[in-house]
Design a protein that fits this description.
The chain is of the alpha+beta class and 279 residues long. The protein is 24% helix and 28% strand. It is built from 5 helices and 9 strands.
Amino acid sequence: MPLARTSDTLPHFENPPVVEVVLSVAFEPIPELSNIGLVGLWSDAFVTKFPEAKEMPPYSPPVEQFGVRQSGGVRMSTGSGPPPVRLWLSDSKGRDLIQLQHDWFARNWRKLGDGDEYPRYERSIRQAFADDLSALVGQFERREWRMVPTQCEVTYINHIKPTGFWADHGDAATVFSRLRPLSMSDSRAEALSFKASYLMRDSSMSGAPIGRLHAQVESAFSDRGEPLFVFNLTARGAPFDAPGIDGVLHFLDRGREWVVSTFTDWTTEEAHKAWRRVQ
């Protein structure tokens, strides 16, 4: 299993505003994996670590395409059995959870309180995902099922709260380096929303695209009515450079580098000081 790359030039923050990290992999649907089969996998592999279970609607993971026009639409199912479900399995505190359905697996870390410290991608999050994915693949192999990964995704959700250097949504240019001050002659902006997508390219593949980085900022309010900015970053693409789990981890490592670099590029030095950037 490849180790996570820890570039000396990758920015690092001692107090980042991240509140959730999701690592996931989509795979070719396994017809034999029924709703009852999902429960069996939970019982055999995950019930000790994730004792809390909920049924959720299935998730349709997006697929990045290159060189063709992507079209929307609704998937139609003609099956006569019960509709598929997504199992939401969490630990006793609810900070760590996995999600599982017949064609998708994800692992989440969530910040639930001010005292929860981001456990770091290299030290904890990546290894936890790899361990649980390996356990799932082992269960598949016992049942003579084959996982064929098709798409990987790493998502960071950040809640940027006022910490002295900004006070309301009109101060967005103080937080985000790509903005000019959002004010008119006699009024300041009350809300904002912007997003962008970038092709991810890899030099070892002659510049061919390996995925996309999606960035989105929305103004919002906390449960206590305080203004905040929700800054979501998602890197998505196919596994590459190695078969199986290793190929998945290769993409997640590269995607996480893009996420961190874009987060840093989009935000100001003043914000970096508040989050205690150390490199």
